[in-house]
Amino acid sequence: MHQVLYCLTEEHDWRLVALGGAVCLLASAAAISLFHRARATKGVGRLAWLGLDAAVSGCGIWATHFIAMLAYGPGGAGAYNIPVTILSLVFAISVTFVGLSIAVSSSRAVWIALGGAIVGSGVAAMHYTGMAALEIPARVGWIGSTVAVSVLSGIVFAALALLMAARRDDLFHALTATVLLTVGIVAHHFTAMGAVVLTPDPTLAIGGLSIPPASLSFLTASAAVAIIAIALVAALLDRRAKGELGAQQMVLDTALENMSQGLCMFDADGKIMLFNERYAAMLRRTDIALAGRLLVDVLREEEAKGEWHGDADEFFARLVADAREGRTTTDVVNRFGRSIRVVNQPMQGGGWVATFEDITEWLEAQAKISHMARHDALTSLPNRVLFHEQLEQGLRRTRSGDQLAVLCLDLDHFKDINDSLGHPIGDALLKEVGRRLTAAVGESDTVARLGGDEFAVVQIGRSEETAARSLAGRLVEIISAPYEIDDHQIVIGVSIGISLSPQDGSDPSELLKNADLALYRAKADGRGTYRFFETGMDARAQARRLLEMDLRAALQRDEFEAYYQPIRDVASGRVVAFEALLRWNHPQRGLIAPIDFIPLAEETGLILQLGEFVLRSACTDAATWPDDVDLAVNLSPVQFKNPNLIASVTAALAVSGLDARRLELEITESVLLQNSEATLTTLHELRAMGVRISLDDFGTGYSSLSYLRSFPFDKIKIDRSFVSELATREDSMAIIRAVTGLGRSLGIVTTAEGVENDVQLELLRREGCTQAQGYLFSKPRPASDVAMMLNRPRLLASA
Ligand SMILES: Nc1nc2c(ncn2[C@@H]2O[C@@H]3COP(=O)(O)O[C@H]4[C@@H](O)[C@H](n5cnc6c(=O)[nH]c(N)nc65)O[C@@H]4COP(=O)(O)O[C@H]3[C@H]2O)c(=O)[nH]1
């Protein structure tokens, strides 16, 4: 140690030592930076960086040595043998190259340390060869132990330097490694110089092939500094470029790995260049090597394992050909129970990018949406859209000689069931109807629910009239069979309209329209039956449409008028009331009877306005009559569903000033059929106001008697049909006798309608009927004739 210190302080020029140290530091910095570059690169690039690193390190060590030698006082007297000097440079570069190569190619500390140690021994090899090149007039001797320390210090520090550099490529590790390497080189040099023992010998001459130390040192130092500087700049530029590339790579990797789609990139030969994890996971290729492999090899491997089916070579050849010819292809493939959409997009310069999207859920949702769009949610039967499509399909078949029938079905009075038993029961009934229909039709026939209580059937193939007739008959029977739903026994009828193709039409809309017209006819003919389309139906429907338009206009033009028909007390013959009966003064058609427009007004809802008009005008008229003459007004079931009924009765009474006890409202059984709870409440409210309630057309319904129990009616009006047959039919007489008897015992007034002659009147009187109404006394007349009707018991002139 003493020798080393002595050598350093006494035998060296400090300024040159500092210069050598600076060159060494610069060389070390470049060497470490290049070392990092070499580790970050692969293949030929790595080899180039290693070569440059070894050259820079070798030159750096070499230059450091000769600058330091210039600082060494005793060396100034000699010269350097040129071949040996060159050999020392070769040693420095080649041994360093070996050491760096080992350290770069491994990530294990032991190999990196070994590489570093070899670099350190390269420093020693250079130094001692360089010393051998020194020619001075003295004999050079060595202190063995100091030599050993010098070699060891170079090895240890160089190994530490590379270990530090290999840990991380950042400023801290780079600086620490640089300092360690510098220390290694410098420590080695000066320790080695401390080991030198010079014995002057003037006989030793300087050879011919030598160069003075000052020239060599400055020459090599400048060249080395230039090389080192260039290398350092190159390394720094490369680092920055790599850094940017690395950042881009990171962004790309993040994007790739966070894509919901799988992505795989192939070169022009079909070799996998890049893929993301989603791709590997989607195609279950996580366990097999993919990068750099030909797709066809991967497919063959999967084919062998039974995971891929098809001809791998043919498939692959097609993909490569598509990419080569610039064709973008889209396929939906089924892999492992999932539906995957694959898009192969050719790349510029060959190869293609394949994207893989799992569209299983999307396809399922699509199927669901498409099912929902074409099926009825309640019954799952085809809806109008699908029905149209199937009808169109069927019609295409009829062109090749087949026949087709369209059956439109409408449940009779379904609304009443819905209103009285509630929607859940109504829904359950519709479902059951759908099931019965489906079970009843043939395999090639289609049943659809067109909406509400409307169903339709297309009968294809054997649909000549008799087949359609037999199906319709069967359907009427099947649908009319009782239903048991939630402890309710339900009976419902069905009306069916039928159109046939080709005779009744050849496009879906026409056939449906004609079947609808036939359905309308079936309903008009009493429901619970079927009708075939006939040509005249269209005209009738047209007439109905015109009537509806007329009706609306008539309301605006005030063409309606209340007529009155007297009701007489049978015993005294006195007029006790007038029934208001609506008339339409049509400007072209003259006076129109209610039977010709009331049903349509009920269907279209216009009855609400009409009913209100009758109530108001009749109450106003009646207010002018004697106090003991009452007014009877008919109420339609439709009006009864209107929540404003009570309000409009109250308003009519209030505006006219008529006493509520003089007003009598006539309702038919059908009013009681609908939503009975609400109906009964309304009836009771009307009664509470003082208004009386009559049961009109008694005897024409199915269970007239049972309705008498549900509400305490003030009056029963015996239907005209019984009165007209009074003298001829025994059973009519019996019914009248029963009703009048019932009225007497319940304290209810009985009014016989349609009394046309004295015989009928006499019989009614005999049976104890309370009141009578009919043409015998007067036909319905305008309000202006009321006074006349009051004064004259019989007014046979027609109205
Ligand atoms: N053949 C014959 N017929 C007789 C005789 N006596 C009375 N009539 C007719 O019998 C019908 C009695 O009225 P309705 O049973 O309530 O039957 C009424 C009633 O249900 C309905 N209607 C009439 N006006 C209104 C109204 O303002 N509102 C409602 N909702 N319906 C009305 O139209 C039906 C028919 O009314 P109209 O044509 O006026 O027919 C009236 C009347 O002209 C007779 O001796 N012989």
The helix tally amounts to: 29
For the largest beta-sheet, the strand count, sense and barrel status come to:
8 strands, mixed, barrel
Please give the radius of gyration in angstroms.
57 Å
Judged by helices, strands and strand pairing, the structural class is alpha+beta
Bound molecules: ligand C2E
Low-confidence stretches: none
Pfam family, one: EAL
Catalytic activity: 3',3'-c-di-GMP + H2O = 5'-phosphoguanylyl(3'->5')guanosine + H(+)
InterPro entries: Biofilm_reg_signaling, EAL_dom, EAL_sf, GGDEF_dom, MHYT_dom, Nucleotide_cyclase, PAS, PAS-like_dom_sf
Keywords: Membrane, Transmembrane, Transmembrane helix
Main features:
799 residues; alpha+beta; Beta-Lactamase; Alpha-Beta Plaits; 4 domains; 5-stranded antiparallel sheet; rod-shaped; binds ligand C2E; membrane; Nucleotide_cyclase; transmembrane helix; GGDEF domain-containing protein; GGDEF_dom
Describe the structure.
- By secondary structure, the protein is of the alpha+beta class.
- It has four domains: 2-241, no CATH class; 262-363, Beta-Lactamase, CATH 3.30.450; 375-533, Alpha-Beta Plaits (2-Layer Sandwich); 554-791, EAL domain (TIM Barrel), CATH 3.20.20.
- Helices cover 56% and strands 18% of the residues.
- The protein has 29 helices and 27 strands.
- Bound molecules: ligand C2E.
Write the SSE topology.
Blueprint: H1 2-10, H2 14-40, H3 43-71, E1 79-81, H4 82-104, H5 109-132, E2 134-135, E3 138-142, H6 144-167, H7 171-194, E4 196-200, E5 210-211, H8 213-257, E6 262-266, E7 272-275, H9 277-282, H10 295-304, H11 312-324, E8 329-335, E9 338-346, E10 352-358, H12 360-374, H13 384-398, E11 403-411, H14 414-421, H15 423-440, E12 446-451, E13 454-461, H16 465-480, E14 483-485, E15 488-490, E16 494-501, H17 508-524, E17 530-532, H18 535-557, E18 560-569, E19 575-586, E20 590-592, H19 598-604, H20 607-622, E21 630-634, H21 637-641, H22 645-656, E22 663-667, H23 669-673, H24 676-689, E23 692-698, H25 704-710, E24 715-718, H26 720-724, H27 730-746, E25 749-752, H28 758-767, E26 771-773, E27 781-782, H29 786-791
Parallel strand pairs: 16-17, 19-21, 21-22, 22-23, 23-24, 24-25, 25-26
Antiparallel strand pairs: 1-2, 1-5, 3-4, 6-7, 6-10, 8-9, 9-10, 11-13, 11-16, 12-13, 14-15, 18-19, 18-26, 18-27, 19-20
Helix pairs in contact: 1-7, 2-3, 2-6, 2-7, 2-8, 3-4, 3-5, 3-8, 4-5, 5-6, 5-7, 6-7, 10-11, 14-15, 15-16, 20-22, 22-24
